[in-house]
Amino acid sequence: MIFILTLISCSKQSKIYYEYDGLVVTRFTDCSKDYILIGKHQNISDTLNSTFIKSSFSGFNSGMDAYMVFRSDRKIDIIGLGASFEKFGSNDSINLKDFENNIDFKKWEDNAKLNFKNIIRLSNVIKLEKKRNLGYKTEVQASYEN
Predict the structure, then answer these.
(1) Which DSSP symbol is given to 143?
(2) Which of 25, 35, 107, 122: CA 20 to 30 A from 85?
(3) Which residues pair with 23 in a beta bridge?
């Protein structure tokens, strides 16, 4: 039973491209780890010389959940909701955004849901990610590759 649930909740290694207004972001997924970086990249080894965000989680009852915001200044904010997020590199084109408290985050989230065009919700469960973003009517285009 646990094995079956693991197969359902954990996608294989994959590559996802997100694009909004000509800006492309690549996400490499590997079940409990994700690497997010600006630009269209073919290999996870591209993270070695780039600024990137790494998310990781462990355990059966955890996962990755985040918002990715494409800003008008062509920078990316990652707002982590579930998992551990860490930035590597000094380029400010991709950043982790934190809120002082949950009230500030909820205000941001409520406003964001009114105009979700430049925001996409990320998840380690790809089927859930696709379903959520259809409901949000995001204009961020996602291309999923295995």
Answers:
(1) E
(2) 107
(3) 20
pLDDT in tens, 4-40: 444 445 556 789 999 999 999 999 998 789 999 999 9
pTM of the predicted model as reported, rounded to 2 decimal places = 0.87
The answer to whether 140 touches 18, Cβ cutoff 8 Å, is: yes
Instruction: Tell me the C-alpha distance between 34 and 44, whole Å.
Output: 10
DSSP state of 93: T
Q: What is the pLDDT of residue 86?
A: 96
Closest residue by Cα to residue 54 from 26, 40, 33: 33
Nearest CA-CA partner of 76 in 37, 133, 115, 108: 37
How many helical (H) and strand (E) elements, i.e. helices and strands, does the chain have? 3, 10
Contact 33, 53 (CB under 8 A): no
What are the backbone angles phi and psi of residue 82, rounded to the nearest 5°? -145, 135
